[in-house]
Every structure is written in C-alpha cells, then in structure tokens.
Design brief:
The chain is of the alpha+beta class. It has helices at about 5-10, 15-25, 25-35, 55-60; strands at about 15, 45, 50. A 3-stranded antiparallel sheet has the order 1-3-2.
C-alpha cells in the first residue's frame, strides 16, 4: 500500500496492518510505537484500534528530514 493507493481508496480510518504496510514496518512495531507514544495518533472503538488517514500522513510529514543531523 502506498499514499497514491490511499488517496484513490480514500478510507477514513486505517487498520494497524494498513498503517504498517504504508510505513514499511511490522504490525508489532506500530503497536510498540502506540504503547510508547511515538506513533501516530489513534482511535479506540471498543477493542479495535484505528488510525485516521490524515493523522498518519501528518505524522509522516513531521518526520521529514533534509539531512541526518536534523
């Protein structure tokens, strides 16, 4: 899954798997980031964890760097 695919499908909420695929990470890494507060903002609906697409894309944009020391 990539950003173009997300824009075409236009889902409002993403699963852990979708976020992991988008960020090229494992689901376990996404879960660890959530537990430590280092990942994108998320929503809980009962037992389900969902990520709003705009929150994930904003989180990604905040991590953009032009060079290593940043």
């Amino acid at each position: 899954m990539n950003i173009e695919t997300l824009n075409q499908a236009n889902p409002r909420f993403l699963t852990e798997k979708q976020v992991a695929d988008l960020l090229c990470q494992s689901v376990r890494t996404i879960q660890k980031w959530r537990m430590t507060g280092h990942g994108p903002a998320f929503h809980k609906f009962g037992q389900s964890v969902r990520y709003h697409q705009t929150d994930v894309l904003a989180w990604v944009a905040e991590r953009r760097r032009a060079h290593t020391p940043q």
